[in-house]
Amino acid sequence: MKTLIASALITTMLSPAFAQEAGQVPPPQSPSDVPMPVAGAPISAEYAAAIGRMAYIWGWPLVNMHNRQTLFATAPHPGLLGGVLPVAPLNQIGMLSDYVRPEQRFIAAPNQDVVYGAGFMALDEDAVVVQVPDFGDRFWVYQVVDQRSDSFAEMGIQYDTAPGHYLLVGPDWNGETPDGIKAVVRSQTNLAAVFPRIFMDDTDEDRKAIQPLIDQVMVYPLSKYTGEMQTMDWSEAPEIPNPNAGGDGETRWVVPEEFFKVLPEVLAETPPLPGEEGLYAMIGQVLDAAADNPELMEALTKAAVETEASVIDYMFEFRNNGVDAGNGWRTQKNSARFGYDIFQRTATAKGNMFSNVPEETMYFGADFDSAGDRLNGAKAYTLTFPAGQLPPVDGFWSLTLYNEQHFFYPNELNRFSLGTKNKSLVTNEDGSLTIYVQNENPGGEKEANWLPAPAENFSLYIRAYWPQNAIVSGDWPLPTIEPVK
């Protein structure tokens, strides 16, 4: 806990706004005027370890993104990695044709409300064209993030985004925009990623209706642009062997023992935000010294391993991220818009990376019931939404259950969430809706509202896509998680 408090304090103190308000430094200077560490200064193993701990917390999400891009770069063509994960070579995209399958381990805390896509970009190689089909009134959003996992594009139904072609470019791109391109979207970093989410009802009819639309969800290099909508039958996406298959938790995207070997490359490919120049120089000084000094590299590696165990692992639980939202739930206020908030950015990358910005999606996680006890399948629980108090959204909502690793719990109904997509939910006589969260099937009409739970610890997660102001402002009361006595 002390380490977390210290890291949060460091995060705040690194903010130029904090320093100016405190009267400690003059207004920001240009990077060339900022005093930097003196070359040749002696660096002890203890100092290297101290800087290493801070650098590990700060750089964890950036290295995470770098390593995911590295995996996608090995894809020979668009397809399904291990038969479950949509992948594609860099500057392209892969798409599912149905809900994400329970066995995928690419991303923790997924949902089964949308058809997902995923693609990583190397924008220093080429600008890319992003296709948007005519989705009509179906909910959809494309999340476009930079290396810091900040969203920087507004593409979705809530933005009235028109169908057509959009150009995604890197920070240094100065090419000509071809005819037919509706808008140019610029990333702050050359590493970027695109994650389409297209809502689908849990019915055979909607699974059929959505296929022609998702077949037009394409991303490809500008050099391949023709002005016409290109298509691919994603239901026929070929399987690609997964070299990282296995394990109960998310793929280990950040390996502490390798972190400081990768970080120099990540620093080089991620320009500092205004005010971060000194931080980059301080970390770079230690990395340069450690490159030729095994003792310093050993100190950095040890710091990474210890910080992973004492800080990063702690961030995984929903209770250790975000802010109190009432009735035992936690939520994020700056998801995908982190800025200088190192703590939230890293905690989100650990527990639920690629969350949308709050105006697109609000997320609420819970690990405990109304009595303050850890959610566990040895008990049964109910969540009741009073009449007229379902999550107020213009998109959709869902309640998802995750096991301790933030993945789906295999069960007899193959059911992992309930919400807008479900057309057979049964309301009570007074118009309220009760969800039954328990290990055993409650039977009868209650089965339609049953969210199967494992026998061990689990967590609950509410998603509100395109939330109305009552959710964003915190005025909507979240349901209590009541243990059944």
Write a structural description:
The chain is of the alpha+beta class and 485 residues long. The chain is 26% helix and 23% strand. The protein is built from 9 helices and 22 strands. Strands 13-14-15-21-17-18 form a 6-stranded antiparallel beta sheet. A 5-stranded antiparallel beta sheet has the order 3-4-10-6-7, with helices on one face. A 4-stranded mixed beta sheet has the order 9-8-5-11, with no helix packed on it. Helix 3 crosses helix 6. The longest helix is centred in the first third of the chain and has 28 residues, at 45-72. It is globular and about 75 Å long. Residues 1-26 have low confidence and may be disordered.
In short:
The chain is 26% helix and 23% strand.
Topology at a glance:
Layout (H helix, E strand, L loop, with lengths): L1 H13 L1 H7 L22 H28 L6 E3 L3 E3 L6 E2 L18 E9 L5 E5 L7 E7 L8 E2 L7 E6 L11 E6 L4 E9 L4 H11 L4 E3 L17 E2 L15 H14 L7 H15 L2 H22 L7 E4 L2 E3 L10 H11 L8 E6 L14 E5 L7 E11 L13 E3 L13 E6 L11 E3 L5 E10 L1 H4 L9 E2 L2
Parallel strand pairs: 1-12, 8-9, 19-20
Antiparallel strand pairs: 1-2, 3-4, 4-10, 5-8, 5-11, 6-7, 6-10, 13-14, 14-15, 15-21, 16-19, 16-22, 17-18, 17-21
Helix pairs in contact: 3-5, 3-6, 3-7, 3-8, 5-7, 6-7
Structural class: alpha+beta
What CATH architecture of the largest domain do you see? Sandwich
Per DSSP, what share of the residues sits in E-state strands of 2 or more residues? 15-25%
The description of the largest β-sheet is: 6 strands, antiparallel
CATH H-level homologous superfamily name of the largest domain: Domain of unknown function DUF1214, C-terminal domain
